[in-house]
Amino acid sequence: MALIAHITDLHLRPRGLACYRVSDTNMLAERAILALNGLTPRPDAVVLTGDLTDKSDPREYALARQILSRLAMPVFMIPGNHDGSADMRREMSGFPGMDGDVDGKLCYTAEIGDVRLIALDTNIPGKPNGELGTPQLNWLSDRLSDDNRPTLIALHHPPALSGIQHMDAIGLNDANALAEVIGPHKHIQRLLCGHLHRPIIAEFAGKIMTLAPSTGHQVVLDLTEDGPPMFNFEPPAYFLHHHTLQAGTVTHMAYVEAYPGPHHFFADEGVSWPGDDA
Ligand SMILES: [Fe+2]
Ligand SMILES: [Fe+2]
């Protein structure tokens, strides 16, 4: 059994500053942490698929340390294009996996309940695109061969195309090479991604890719050919990946904020409510 919360793209800024003028990403990230800590049952771990910071600024990592230390469960993070691998390794030292290093890439494995996590690094310094690189792909191939437990692979840049053109233009450069490595391995349950700031599910190399929305602002859903890069404030959300022997991995999307309800389906039929006899 394993229950894993998947959050992404916090885009933290130095305290008091907004992201892209109007997105209060620091406050929104704190709201997400509060929501995760309030979950019942409590997730075994949180996976954070990159863009933890907006500009890889030491002040942003300092805030990240403070906010993420409040989580009631371990957090496994990877760099996005807005972070830096070396910066994250240094500034987030002490968090699990931060000493992972394959040819400069911050990658590692972890165990969460009966699921194995393989955390990958797609950061290219100073570039918005992503790349795994041959040494890390070879390392991934070895890790997939040496253990056949149910496996989740986390990487910031989604390897599948979304149809949102300005985001697909800054995708994963070596997606084809990744497909060759992961294709034969049937124990891969999910690819966990970020970067697109939208909930997206797609098939890639015969696997299910789940791309979580941001805890902050979202990218506008625009499937036209030359849509401009725009963001909005659709509801921040996260995924819960629930792994059981009976059902395999089932993914639920859940919202950070509360909405009206819950209301009992059968309230008019004399059904007793929890606590009625108290
Ligand atoms: Fe992002
Ligand atoms: Fe990104």
Automatic annotation (TrEMBL):
Residues 4-199 form the Calcineurin-like phosphoesterase domain. It holds the Pfam family Metallophos. InterPro entries: Calcineurin-like_PHP, CNP_phosphodiesterase-III, GpdQ/CpdA-like, GpdQ_beta-strand, GpdQ_catalytic, Metallo-depent_PP-like. GO terms for molecular function: cyclic-nucleotide phosphodiesterase activity; metal ion binding. Keywords: Hydrolase, Iron, Metal-binding. Belongs to the cyclic nucleotide phosphodiesterase class-III family. PANTHER family: CYCLIC NUCLEOTIDE PHOSPHODIESTERASE CBUA0032-RELATED (PTHR42988:SF2), PHOSPHOHYDROLASE (PTHR42988). This is Putative phosphohydrolase.
